[in-house]
Specification:
The protein contains six helices and five strands. The chain is an alpha/beta fold. Helix 1 runs parallel beside helix 2, helix 3 crosses helix 6 and helix 4 packs across helix 6.
Length: 174
């Protein structure tokens, strides 16, 4: 069974200080992953850096969280950035996959509840050479989120995207 209609995917997870990204070749090869910081006009800087990543990797699909989904608690700036990222992808001829938070959590936890840190731990176990050393310690309620979590957010979006595609293919083939 062939699952790689989209050979290169780029997942983007914007945050208040920049964005995390993950580039996958197919469903299981993590090619690049980092955090890009931005200053000044954060949305404009994010789009400029994202355009450079698109030029570098030539992804067939861009994966982003669905900020318009019911229950999304992202700030208005991030919601606007999400719309701008989808417009940029469209201008570049790239397919966009938006993953709602509840679908992302369903991929990792099924029907039970779980945290972002638990997702990060799962991903560090799945990609130990790439992400194992980047797993931040679990934060306490009074601590800010570690900037490295943006990477795990992006990788989680990619994993959820490929899981969703695989599920559709399996359902279609049965």
């Amino acid at each position: 069974m062939r699952v790689t209609q989209f050979s290169i995917s780029l997942a983007v997870a914007p945050s208040n200080r920049g964005f995390g990204f993950a580039v996958f070749e197919g469903q299981s090869i993590l090619v690049d992953w980092r955090v890009k910081t931005v200053k000044g006009d954060k949305n404009e800087q994010t789009l400029a850096k994202l355009k450079a990543l698109i030029s570098q990797y030539q992804p067939a699909v861009l994966v982003i969280q669905d900020y318009s989904a019911h229950g999304s608690r992202r700030s208005p700036r991030i919601q606007e950035l999400g719309r701008s990222i989808m417009a940029l992808a469209s201008e570049q001829g790239i397919s966009v996959a938006s993953i709602p938070d509840r679908e992302l959590r369903r991929v990792f936890f099924g029907n039970r509840r779980g945290t972002k840190f638990e997702i990060a731990r799962i991903l560090a176990d799945q990609f130990p050479e790439e992400l194992g050393a980047r797993l931040p310690r679990q934060r306490k309620p009074w601590m800010s989120q570690d900037y490295r979590m943006d990477i795990f957010d992006a990788v989680a979006l990619s994993v959820a995207f490929w899981a969703k595609r695989l599920h559709r293919l399996l359902r279609f083939n049965n």
